[in-house]
Design goal:
Layout lengths: L23 H8 L12 H10 L4 E8 L5 H16 L2 E5 L3 H16 L14 E2 L2 E7 L2 E4 L4 E5 L3 H6 L4 E5 L14 H6 L9 E5 L9 H7 L2 E8 L6 E2 L6 E5 L5 E7 L6 E2 L1 H9 L2 E5 L16 E7 L15 H14 L3 H12 L14 H6 L16 E8 L3 E9 L5 E10 L5 H11 L3 E2 L5 E2 L3 E5 L4 H8 L7 E7 L7 E4 L6 E4 H12 L15 E2 L8 H7 L3 E6 L5 E6 L8 H15 L13 E3 L10 H7 L15
Parallel strand pairs: 1-8, 1-15, 2-6, 2-7, 7-8, 9-15, 16-21, 18-25, 21-22, 22-24
Antiparallel strand pairs: 3-4, 4-5, 5-6, 9-10, 9-14, 11-12, 11-28, 12-13, 16-17, 17-18, 19-20, 23-24, 26-27
Helix pairs in contact: 3-4, 9-10, 14-16, 15-16
The structure holds zinc ion (ZN).
Length: 642
């Protein structure tokens, strides 16, 4: 169900009645219509949820669903029913109020149908199926029949004043209760229905990270249901997942074939067959009947129900750029490998397409000794490795020394360490800068006869900013760029310019995540070439144990960003080696991004058949690398009783 669906049934002259004739699921099909006038029909997997939304025995309903399920429409229709048929007070709680207001304006109002109407006061009013709003201010709408919609954000005082029949909490994984002395916002919100008759409690979210997910917690205390397919070839019950999706790409990376494979018999299905199995599917309870009842509150005997599903059950329309839905999803999976930060892309796939929380394999990174051992015998100052097409540098000035690294870049994000040096000397004096200039103006011989200069250099200006900026300014034509590292979790690798200054912000967390995951890549035996993003180091006096200890000095953890999304945050643990090698590599990588161009690639034209990337348990790139030519393996059963 997409947002184009509108409620346009003619109920404008109906009288609000205390006991409606039709239960919600039927009411919606009776009164709602699609824009072209055809009657609205639930998708099979939406219908049960719609039936549960107002079912007396179901006190709480949790939705842990993929993006594109039609959640906003389903809930919007539920709000509409409560407003029209029960004159209900509907509350929606969001991690912050501005998200809530934009949901109200951009998603809910179009879904439930409204007329723009000014009555001379310039205030926009809207009606839901004939009930005019009598008050419509940001985040609060009151209707002529006494019904209301209100949006609740972070404010506990607003939450405490609310009296609700329907309480819907969205994006509960992004709720931040850590600093709130008032306690659990979700429970407090659901508590606002206490005096009322209806007492509908709904919560939804993309899941976030295993062990930190609020919606996972909700599912754990509930009767948990999954939409299962019955394989049309072998009749086995099967919980479809993007891991069952296979595809072929051409050399441009475009997906040319996609199919869904039954994990029991190996039969391949196209999108038409997938849709047929989804249409014939059903929700099944996972686990035993004990989950039917809330274990810690047996006296109430009220059911908590949770619905979980991956996007493989989707029956809505697909993006018009793709022939069908599985091609659309396959393209998203294929894009992960080409993404700058594959780990972060994998989190998005897990959360939004699989509807699963992401397992944090806390910072996979190699040991310094492993990196030492895999050094290769090339001598950058004599001859560049053949693959190098661009040379950049990263410079990290400190009080009494400057660290610099020069890195060569080629196709497929492959890179070669060329030179690392720590130049001792006070940075307020010129000697040390002169030495730096000598290093940065060296040219490198390429096997094709050219000599390559350092094309772009990023210089950190965190320490003695004025001195550093002054040094950079006259060297601009040589590609010397002043930068400053940003620890903000969501700053992209190339962040915004610092206000009023000619200094570029660099998202260091994202850069470090990319570097560490690429350092973990392993070369696949029996495969030509190196995996995408492989980082080479030369056997040289500049790349010794101390360098590698510094390169992998930092540790990381997943932290919640301002929008509720999780990001990997890096920090230097006590007693760790000095991290200048890592910092220099971050800046050299930013420099490469500034001068990104189309590298010549000698990929052949054959189509490559592959499985989508594996999300659980390992988010590391070594899995991706190893997976390429591997035969399909039988997958463990994920579902009890399947
Ligand atoms: Zn089968």
């Amino acid at each position: 169900m997409n947002r184009a669906t509108r409620i346009i049934g003619d109920v404008s002259n109906r009288i609000v009645r205390p006991s409606p004739d039709l239960p919600f699921a039927e009411w919606a099909e009776h009164y709602l219509a699609l824009p072209d006038g055809t009657p609205f029909r639930w998708h099979p997997y939406q219908r049960t949820i719609a039936e549960d939304m107002f079912r007396p025995g179901v006190s709480e309903l949790y939705l842990r669903l993929f993006s594109g399920f039609g959640k906003t429409f389903t809930l919007g229709a539920g709000f509409s029913y409560a407003l029209v048929e029960h004159a209900g007070s509907c509350g929606a709680m969001f991690p912050n109020e501005s998200d809530g207001k934009s949901w109200l304006t951009n998603e809910l109002k179009p879904t439930i149908g409204y007329d723009e109407d000014t009555d001379g006061t310039g205030v926009q009013r809207f009606h839901v199926q004939g009930i005019r709003s009598v008050r419509d201010i940001a985040g609060f709408t009151k209707f002529a029949n006494g019904a209301s919609i209100q949006i609740i954000g972070q404010s506990f005082s607003k939450l405490r004043r609310a009296q609700l029949d329907v309480a819907f909490a969205d994006e509960v994984d992004a709720l931040d209760d850590s600093s709130a002395s008032e306690g659990d916002r979700l429970r407090a919100f659901f508590g606002r229905t206490r005096q009322r008759v209806m007492q509908r409690h709904w919560a939804a979210s993309y899941p976030s990270v295993v062990g930190k997910s609020r919606i996972d917690e909700c599912v754990d205390i509930s009767q948990s249901l999954y939409w299962l397919f019955t394989c049309s070839a072998c009749s086995a019950l099967w919980r479809p997942h993007t891991q069952d999706l296979g595809f072929k790409r051409n050399r441009h990376g475009d997906v040319t074939h996609a199919w869904l494979t039954c994990p029991h018999c190996g039969e391949r299905f196209d999108d038409r067959e997938r849709r047929a199995m989804s249409t014939a599917g059903a929700w099944h309870v996972e686990g035993d009947e004990e989950h039917d009842w809330r274990p810690d509150d047996p006296a109430t005997r009220r059911t908590y129900r949770a619905y979980s599903s991956s996007c493989m059950i989707q029956l809505g329309l697909c993006d018009e750029n793709f022939p069908d839905y599985i091609h659309e999803v396959a393209s998203k999976l294929a894009a992960v490998r080409r993404s700058q930060n594959p780990s972060a892309s994998l989190r998005v796939i897990a959360n939004q397409l699989d509807g699963e929380s992401f397992r944090d394999e806390s910072a996979i990174k190699p040991e310094p000794s492993e990196l030492m051992q895999r050094r290769e015998p090339y001598r950058p100052f004599e001859m560049l490795p053949d693959g190098v097409q661009l040379v950049t540098a990263g410079v990290d000035p400190n009080a009494d020394f400057i660290s610099v690294e020069i890195v060569g870049w080629g196709a497929n994000d492959e890179c070669w360490a060329l030179h690392y040096e720590k130049i001792n000397g006070n940075i307020l004096q010129t000697d040390v800068w002169r030495a730096l200039d000598r290093i940065l103006t060296r040219r490198f011989r390429h096997p094709d006869g050219r000599t390559l200069p350092v094309a772009v250099t990023c210089v950190d200006t965190n320490h003695k900013p004025t001195t550093c900026r002054r040094w950079c300014a006259p060297r601009r034509s040589r590609g010397v760029i002043p930068i400053i590292g940003s620890n903000q979790l969501d700053t992209p690798l190339l962040g915004p310019r610092v206000k009023g200054k000619d200094v570029l912000r660099i998202g260091v967390n994202e850069a470090k995540e990319t570097i560490y995951s690429r350092l973990s890549l392993v070369v696949d035996e029996g495969e030509d070439g190196f995996p995408q993003g492989y980082q080479h180091f030369p056997i040289s006096e500049h790349y010794q144990a101390r360098y590698f200890a510094g390169l992998v000095a930092e540790e990381s953890e997943l932290k919640k960003g301002r929008t509720g999304q999780f990001f990997r945050a890096y920090f230097l643990p006590p007693g760790a080696a000095r991290p200048e090698p890592l910092d220099c590599r971050v800046y050299a990588m930013a420099a490469e991004q500034l001068r990104r161009f189309h590298y010549d690639s000698d990929d052949d034209e054959t189509e490559e058949e592959e499985k989508p990337v594996e999300r659980q348990p390992a988010p590391d790139l070594s899995t991706l690398a190893r997976q390429r030519n591997r035969q399909r393996r039988t997958r463990k059963k994920r579902f009890i009783g399947a």
